[in-house]
Write a structure and sequence with these properties.
Length: about 200
């Protein structure tokens, strides 16, 4: 562990293959940051085991357990402060980020989305729903977008987009795989540039 590196909190809700890619990049020193905390919106998220294996502290954040949205946001803020988090990296996190957190981490939260935003974004557009919609529309290309996070789903300024082809005989699973390959490759690179203020 290098204490001079910026500290990241990686937020997940599911499988955590992007988290795993970031963990591996950090090990190889290709990610110029420390993953200091993993925040999960579910205790069933498969990605949690990846955090445990890498000995990264994990925090299960369930806003519904609090009396109010404000109290929930305060609890999350407390955790982020406790771990001295500099940047929040959303990696398959399907919940909205509270306004208080967006304000406290202004321009320091990014997300990765498996489509070419502004197409196929917004509430309910996650996982296989995205790829099904792309195939149903007959698009010839799709891809991934890394963007700043604001109070709307999949909405902030785009930092990077990478395109992939869509084939005539594609399935949502095949398209998802092709896009995830790009996500895993590019997320660490974009994070490095972002935390240095180059994007
Ligand atoms: C990724 O495809 C990402 O674009 C989207 O959610 C998916 C998360 O996958 N936001 P994983 O949990 O990293 O495997």
């Amino acid at each position: 562990m290098n204490n001079s590196l910026p500290k990241l909190a990686v937020f997940i809700s599911g499988t955590g293959t992007n988290l795993q890619a970031l963990i591996e990049a950090a090990k190889k020193k290709k990610l110029e940051a420390e993953i200091a905390l993993v925040v999960s919106s579910s205790e069933a998220a498969l990605g949690l085991s990846k955090a445990t294996k890498a000995k990264i502290p994990a925090y299960i954040y369930l806003p519904k357990e609090y009396q109010s949205k404000e109290e929930a946001a305060q609890a999350l803020m407390g955790k982020l402060k406790e771990f001295k988090i500099d940047f929040i990296i959303l990696a398959g996190y399907i919940k909205l980020i509270a306004g208080e957190i967006i304000a406290a981490f202004e321009n320091r939260i990014i997300n990765i989305h498996p489509a070419l935003l502004p197409k196929y974004g917004g509430k309910g557009m996650y996982g296989t729903h995205v790829h099904e919609a792309v195939l149903a529309a007959g698009d010839k290309e799709s891809g991934m977008t890394i963007h700043l996070v604001d109070e709307q789903y999949d909405h902030g300024r785009v930092l990077t987009q990478i395109k992939v082809p869509v084939y005539d005989d594609d399935t949502p699973a095949l398209l998802a795989q092709r896009i995830q390959k790009e996500e895993h490759k590019h997320y660490p690179i974009v994070i490095n540039k972002f935390i240095k203020g180059e994007l």
